[in-house]
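Hey team,

Filing this mostly as a record. A colleague (T.K.) asked me to run one chain through the structure pipeline before their review meeting, and I want the input and output archived in the tracker in case anyone asks later how it was produced. No errors, nothing strange. Just documentation.

Input sequence:
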Amino acid sequence: MAGIHVLSLETDQIVMFVDIQNFGDFVWKEFPNKGVVDEKRKTERKIITNWDGIQNWFFADNSQAHQNNLGYKFRFISDSFVFAVSPGNLHVVLDSLWTIARVLVQEGLLLRGGIAFGDQHFEQNIIGAPYMGAYAVESKIANFFRFLMRRDHYRQCEPNIRDDIKRFFVDIDDHGIMYTPKGAIARQHGFPDMLQYPEDFVEFDFYRYLLSDLPSPASLDRPQRLHWLKEYLNIIEEELKQQLEQKVVDKYEWLRRRLFSIITENDMESDFSQ
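Output structure:
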């Protein structure tokens, strides 16, 4: 009989689960017209090649020793990825997230994430309450293209997060629109019944973070990042011209309003109009 193997746990880790929205539907959806299928497959191959390239770049440029020195670990899981990082090194993960977002948005693919905090095993397998909690927040709570974290988890790790990062963790303004975890999934991931209101969570304002002086690479100055957000907004507006389910329209509209607000706040010469 095999002996019991005790897993090592890394204590006090921020775990971020990030999903590429609609990636699976985009790749696997069938089209009735053969010509459309062929053209779509070309785009699919381009996206998959880009995604493979991102993964290869991470694995080549981020050796295990390098990850350990920076205090973070990561893993790609199909069309999602997971980061585990000590609170003091959260900025390293945010830089990586910024790099991935810049590539994927060119193909109209957007990100949504859940963030949790606690003790985590992160080796060949990823085991621990933070991973399950981050996944649950992303898949059952976040709803829109954003990054949410349980408020009680944020309070636990807040003292060790850099002050210049803390200011981007903000209250949620949802106007009453929010998914509520229910049933077996909620119980499985440890969601108490009271975790169903916006005030139970905080949002990491990723889009305003991108316009700060914090993100790398330094080769992209603030005007370039503002231009990138404008391109991001253009993509959203083009998507809204398509025939979409109402729940998808709601998500794109939410992001359109968010991006428009940020751009007009930061660009006095903006020619965007609602």
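Quick notes for T.K.: The chain is about 50% helix and 20% strand. The first helix runs from residue 23 to 28.
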